[in-house]
Amino acid sequence: MRGNTLYIVVPCFNEEEVLPETARRLGDKLRALMNAGKISPQSRVLFVNDGSGDQTWAVITRLHRDNPLLCGLDLSRNRGHQNALLAGLMAARGRADMAISMDADLQDDVDAAGAMVDKYLAGADIVYGVRSSRKTDTFFKRTTAEAFYRLMDRLGAETVFNHADYRLMSRRALDGLAQFQEVNLFLRGIVPMIGYPTDTVEYERGERFAGQSKYPLKKMLSFALEGVTSLSVRPLRMITGLGFLVFLISLIMIVYNVVRWATGNTVAGWASLACSVWFIGGLILLSLGVIGEYLGKLYLESKDRPRFLIQEELGLEEENRG
Ligand code: UDP
Ligand code: MG
Predict the structure, then answer these.
(1) Cβ 80 under 6 angstroms from ligand 1
(2) N or C terminus: which one in the chain shows less Cβ crowding within 10 Å?
(3) Whose CA is nearest to atom 14 of ligand 1?
(4) Does the C-beta of 13 come closer than 6 Å to ligand 1?
(5) Of the given ranges (23-27, 159-163, 263-267), which has the lowest mean pLDDT?
(6) Residue 275 CA, ligand 1 centroid: distance in Å
(7) Where residue 231 falls among pLDDT bands split at 50, 70, 90?
(8) In what order do the strands lie in the sheet with 198-203?
(9) In this structure, how many other beta carbons lie within 10 angstroms of the beta carbon of residue 135?
(10) pTM over 0.70
(11) Residues whose CB is under 5 A from ligand 2 (ion)?
């Protein structure tokens, strides 16, 4: 029989407005699951403060004082959602038998957590929370997000459709995750690589409870780029294909020009010349950019910098380690 200590890991960046409500709902959920005998009394909610500029850590400290089931992890500075999540999951690893990751803004339906635990108890190692619809998202967010999944797929980065970072991972899956040492972290692409028995739970994604999205368009675009370049080398291969195509076109052009010359038909073609110069120049720059993107990744990976540093822990004392 597998153990049943659950850690709910919640990355928080400037979330002072929603935290009290999130803590209340998650605390209640944890209690209910404990009372139902599904999870052990050692289960906790773990808030990871990702270098917030507001009162987030003070709020977490207060929450922990009032309710010891709510724990905290304070990172040394802002490291981004994915790294904050990883920090929390790695803290849960060794303490918990399963960890559920969830956003702080209550967009992920808390009740789905119970269903995830059920699937874990039934034998799944990874349970993906999959959004059943996106009707609460703005039209813009919905279309860009869906285009994003499609593009990712085309470019060779496999992800679970309509799954964000709401998922349950077993102890064994967390151990697996710990072996993926990459600094360029894109969890929703890495987790499916772990394998083991998986399952999904559908849920309705609500609206942000309070505060503003921490993923403006600019961050979303760089997140998408990060996803593609850290999961797949297909863009590099596409460049090779493109180069081949351009080469083929130039061969045809040479033959064409030779024929025209032999038949005495030479024309002054400034426009076509100028266009092709710009075209080829653009292609070369674009290709160099893509290659540079990978080279930059390689450079960062080779430095092997720590992915996060921990400043303070609340309620994660060593005696809690399982
Ligand atoms: N987040 C974080 N660090 C960051 C940005 C975001 O820990 O640098 C957290 C944030 O507090 C939230 C989660 O990541 O819990 C998802 O962010 P958000 O809800 O703003 O994204 P959206 O739902 O709009 O995509
Ligand atoms: Mg959100």
Answers:
(1) yes
(2) N
(3) 81
(4) yes
(5) 263-267
(6) 44
(7) confident
(8) 198-203, 126-131, 163-170, 98-101, 6-12, 44-49, 70-75, 310-314
(9) 9
(10) yes
(11) 103, 105, 107
How far is 72 from 62, CA to CA, in rounded Å? 10
Distance CA 34, CA 28 (A): 10
Q: What is the pLDDT of residues 53-77, one digit of tens each?
A: 999 999 999 999 999 999 999 999 9
- Residues contacting 119, CB < 8 A, separation 6+: 127, 168, 199, 201
234 Cα to the center of ligand 2, angstroms: 30
Query: 61 C-alpha to center of ligand 2: Å?
Result: 22
Q: Token pair of 248, please?
A: 């083929």
Residue 45 amino acid letter:
V
CA-CA distances (angstroms) from residue 299 to 145, 166, 182, 227, 237?
29, 31, 12, 17, 20
Is the shortest distance between the CB of 105 and ligand 1 below 6 Å?
yes
Q: State the distance from the centre of ligand 2 to the C-alpha of 2, rounded, in angstroms.
A: 32
